Amino acid sequence: ALQAASASNSDLSNQLQERSQELETANKKLTEAQGEAELTLLRLNQVQEELEKYFLRSRAGDELSQAQALENARAMGLLGRMIRLQAPGL
Question: Can you tell me the distance from the alpha carbon of 38 to that of 32, in angstroms, rounded to the nearest whole number?
Fold first, then answer.
């Protein structure tokens, strides 16, 4: 009975050691995965900041384009009035 208990104890000790190694491996993988996740999050934040810059530039370009279109329309209106004012004198 003592030998059986000793053998059982030895088996349990081996199983415990195997589980400890599995746990250590799992913890290493978890640490690596966390590091990769943090790096991915950092990259995503950088991409988001860059996209925000492009969006703001695009919006500023749209506003400038609209202002230029209004100025062009105003200039065309002034040219039309000038032509009408000068036409009777021709």
Answer: 10
Residue 74 one-letter amino acid? R
Helix boundaries (H) for the chain: 2-86
Q: How far apart are CA 45 and CA 2, in angstroms?
A: 63
Number of domains in the chain: 1
3-state secondary structure of 87: helix
- Tell me: the pLDDT tens digits for 26-42? 999 999 999 999 999 99
Please give the residue range of the domain that contains residue 31: 2-89
The two tokens of residue 1 are 């009975």
